[in-house]
Amino acid sequence: MIALQDLHFLVTLATSPSFAIAARRLDVSAPHVTQKLKRLEASLGVSLFERGRQPRLTPQGRLIAERGGEVLRQMRALEESLQNSREELGGQLNIVAPIGFGEKRLAPLLGEYRRRHPHVTLDLTLSDRPAWEGNPRQPDIMFYIGDLHQSTLYRTLIAPTRRLLCAAPAYLASMPPLHRPEDLAHHHCIVLRENDEDCTLWRLRHLASGEESSIRVSPSLTSNVADAVKQWALQGLGIIHRSEWDLQPELAAGTLVPVLPDYAPPAVDIVALMGSSRESRPRRINHFITFVQERLRKELGGPKVQP
Question: Where in the numbering of this chain does the HTH lysR-type domain appear (predicted)?
C-alpha cells in the first residue's frame, strides 16, 4: 500500500521540471529524493521514472502520478469539507501574480489574510509572465494586469486601474517640451517587459477628442522588473509607461509627474483568473478573492464589492 506522504512525494516529482526543483519544493536534499525514489520503486516492484538528464515518467509512473494526484485532491476536498463543517477556512491556496503587483500589493495582503485565517496555507509565485497552462504549481488563482488574451478561465474583476506616462521633473526640465505623442521620438523612453505584450508600442488617446495614436518608442532602458524601471525614472533617465497603482506614492510626493496629461493609455483592470465557476470553487478561494477585492478597491479606488 502506498502511503499518502509517498503519493505526495511522487506527484511532486511528476509535476516538477527536475528532481532538483522537486527537492527544493519538498524541502529535502537532491540525494534524499533519489534514494527515496529507489526505495519506493523497489517496494512497488516497478520503475517509475526513466533516468536521464531530464527524468521522464514511465507508463507506471504516469499512472501513479495521475491517480495519486486525484487521490490527493480528494483528500484536500475532504479536509476542506471538515473545515467548512466547523465554519473555519482551511486548506491550501496556490497563487500566481506579476512580480511588481505581487510584491507591493498582494504579499502584504497574504500576510494579513494568514493572520486572520491561520488554517489556510498560502503559496505565492511571482513572474513577469504569469501563466496558468503548464504551471507546475497548479494555481488556484492567477492575478493578471494588462491585455488579456483569449482564455477559457473564469475572470473576476478585482479593481480598475489606469496607466499613464510619467517622468521626474528634472528630466522634463532638461528636455524638449512634450505637446503631442509624436514628441516622444525626441525623448528617452524606459520600457517594462511583461505579459508578452508589445511593450515598445505605446497607445494613447486624446481625452477630449478621442483621437488615438500609436507610437513605436526606441527604449534607452528596458527591464522585466517594475521597480528597476521606476528607479530609472526617479533618477531622471527618461519617461515610463506604468500602472497608477505602482506610482501613487511618487505622484503624491511630486518625485514623478504625469507626461502628456491630455492623453491616456488604454485603461486596464486587475483581474483574478480561476479554473472553475464561483459555485463550484472551494469556499476559501471565493473568500480570499472577496477579501482582496475589498482591500484593493479601498486602496486604489473603485466600486464597493457587492455582498
Answer: 1-58
